[in-house]
């Protein structure tokens, strides 16, 4: 982390877990455990149906609510979809874009990711843009090329004045939900490369201000080490974000760094 230039953000990604009632219970427990001093930013990204309950429960707290997906059009005949404006209107502040599960199961391509990034920014939401390689890609030695392609295509056409609102989450697919965390060195190497890629697009001053998270089996035990690296500015946490005490422990780890 480097707090001088950019925000540290600990974000939960609940994926397809918890009902609205469970969301309310989580929020009450979580708020009671939150440290009084503010160091890092805290975001909880929840399933769409849980968003109203989360917004209500976290109102007047310093926890921001995020969604896990949006559609890129503003409105129209897109049965079942939800726009960025609709979410912004109910006080959602962040949205995850391009998660590997969406790329894998729902055909989200780099072009779609780019459209969603633009839609989010236009509506005033901060996109958390996920990038990451599979185990096969890492073993083939194409990790950096792939990451550069994902970052550059996600940010295509994003103006300089909006780049600070974008969060990039490096999530190696082989570390997601597997209990197999990237080592601090592996994660830091790619996060540093992501910043260099942003620098090549926007220059050093703006690149320095972008928050780059690591995601993939982050937990209270490994968070502190991962966050000790200069270019790892937070975490996007799946499994461990479902338990209030675990997510709080990661917030504490970020506050200690
Ligand atoms: P896990 O923390 O469960 O590995 O999930 C990471 C993730 O995909 C967050 O978006």
Features:
single chain; 257 residues; alpha/beta; TIM Barrel; eight-stranded parallel β-barrel; 11 helices; 8 strands; globular; binds 1,3-dihydroxyacetonephosphate
List the SSEs and their pairings.
Elements: E1 9-13, H1 20-33, E2 41-46, H2 51-58, E3 63-67, H3 84-89, E4 94-97, H4 100-106, H5 110-123, E5 126-131, H6 135-140, H7 143-155, E6 167-170, H8 184-202, H9 204-208, E7 212-215, H10 223-227, E8 234-237, H11 244-256
Parallel strand pairs: 1-2, 1-8, 2-3, 3-4, 4-5, 5-6, 6-7, 7-8
Helix pairs in contact: 1-2, 1-11, 5-7, 7-8
The chain binds 1,3-dihydroxyacetonephosphate.
Residues 13, 99, 171, 176-177, 215-218, 236-240 line the site of 1,3-dihydroxyacetonephosphate.
Walk me through the structure:
By secondary structure, the protein is an alpha/beta fold. It has a single domain (9-256), classed as Aldolase class I (TIM Barrel, Alpha-Beta Barrel), CATH 3.20.20. Helices cover 43% and strands 15% of the residues. An eight-stranded parallel beta barrel has the order 1-2-3-4-5-6-7-8, surrounded by five helices. α1 (20-33) runs parallel beside α11, α5 packs across α7 (143-155) and α7 packs across α8 (184-202). 1,3-dihydroxyacetonephosphate binds next to β8. Residues 13, 99, 171, 176-177, 215-218, 236-240 line the site of 1,3-dihydroxyacetonephosphate.
